[in-house]
Amino acid sequence: MSIIAWIVLGAIAGYLAGFLVRGDEGLGVIGHIVLGIVGALIGGFLAGVLFNTNPIDGPLDISSIVTAIIGAVIVVVVVNAVTGRSRSGRGAI
Question: Using CA atoms, how far apart are residues 38 and 75, in angstroms rounded to an integer?
């Protein structure tokens, strides 16, 4: 999968991360999409390092989607922790 596909997948993952992580509505949709792109790229890189594969050049499958969503959620939570926002909502995480 090319870097462009990871960016598109990251945008979708960031949008979904906005639904999964509550209490951070200050970021908005665009903020979640940008953080999702960053999270997908970081998640793809870390998955490649941990599992000794190259998921960025691999096919689009369920593992790359899950990797992108997990990376996006982690980046959103980290940004919320750094900026001091709390997760006071009733979200999944």
Answer: 8
Q: Which residue has the tokens 């992108």?
A: 68
For residue 88, pLDDT over 60 is answered with no
Instruction: Count the alpha carbons within 13 Å of 83 in the hemisphere toward its beta carbon.
Output: 14
Angle separating helix axes 3-20 and 62-83, nearest 10 degrees: 60
In the chain, what is the straight-line distance between the N-terminal and C-terminal CA atoms, in Å?
29
Structure token pair of residue 43: 């998640």
pTM, two decimals, is 0.72
- Residue 58 carries which DSSP code? S
* Three-state secondary structure call for residue 9: helix
Q: Assess contact for 44 and 64: CB atoms under 8 A.
A: yes
Cα three-residue angle 42-89-73, rounded to 5 degrees = 10
Token digits of residue 16:
């979904």
